[in-house]
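Read as amino acids, tokens; as here:

___
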Amino acid sequence: MASDLEKRAKEAFFEDEFERALDLYSQALELDPKNADLYADRAQAYIKLQNFTEAVADANRAIELDSLLSKAYLRKGTACMRLEEYQTAKAALEAGSSLAPGDSRFTRLNKKCDELMAEETHNLPEKAIHEAPPSAITPSEDVGPTHDTSYQSAVFELSKQKYRHDFYNSPTELVLNIYARRILAEYVTVDFGEQILSVSINIPGEEAYHFQPRLFGKIIPEKCKYQVLSSKIEIRLFKAEAITWTSLEFSKEKALLQKINASAAVKSQRPSYPSSKSKVDWDQLEAQVKKEEKEEKLDGDAALNKMFRDIYLDADEDMRRAMTKSFVESNGTVLSTNWKEVGSKKVEGSPPDGMELKTWEY
């Protein structure tokens, strides 16, 4: 059962067994692929394992399934901040904050995101790049890899990917082709982040295709575009910096950018971009958020659920077995921590005064 796997995943997560939690969440999603909570929780496991791109993908999927799930926006904002995708993180955190206005985690992360955005833009020139002249790239319906010396071309054959893709780029633009034939535009979703591209193809009755690379460099999302053609999906990424990318995806080994002569595309000498980012102590920030969560004053069902969760986390194995058995067998009306009392017999339901317990048959 997916619910049993989810429960075991949560236990593994609370015990800091993040790899095991990730595996259990993945198994649960195979049984219940439309569960937004599972995607949001797996995103948190990815964050703990420093797999931030995967965390963003899961958070996006959770938001697609349930646009009112505030924790999905929290996961996306957190992961995007770690990827230095501050604009995307800001949008996610603001959306989540509007859904959970009393959640102090959104307030704190929003403030930190504002600080990082201010540092990032402090030393940027007013006009970083200029648009390439019309002759820089000549699009056509069947654009493919070019032999022009002003382009860097690469082809990827990924066994795990359903569709083949390749790209070529000029100093100001990269063109990515995903060779999906005769796909209706309504089945295709493309989202642009500061340094993340997300492509989804959801054809009814077929396994969904997701491609979400962390890009080699930053782009300007509002200038990017795509079109669905008869033989492929053509995606045009407008670069934030006029350079040639040596690969599509970012990696530390390829962090040294290949500079080229961009005089044909840039009206003046390209300015440098000095970094003024301060190092963020993420462990301290996480500890502070956890402290706030622990000290947060809740009321009603939220307070009751927190109390039960704290009892469960501090309990030994027998107490946990007693809590689970009593809660399940009594249809949620009894919660006992005494295994000796409930272990040898079935726990009968005990509804509140004035209410009647009914058994539903399926």
Observations:
- The mean pLDDT is 76.
- The beta strands are 152-156, 165-169, 173-178, 188-192, 197-201, 209-211, 225-228, 233-238.
- The CA atoms of residues 105 and 289 lie 6 Å apart.
- Residues 104-122 form the longest helix (19 residues).
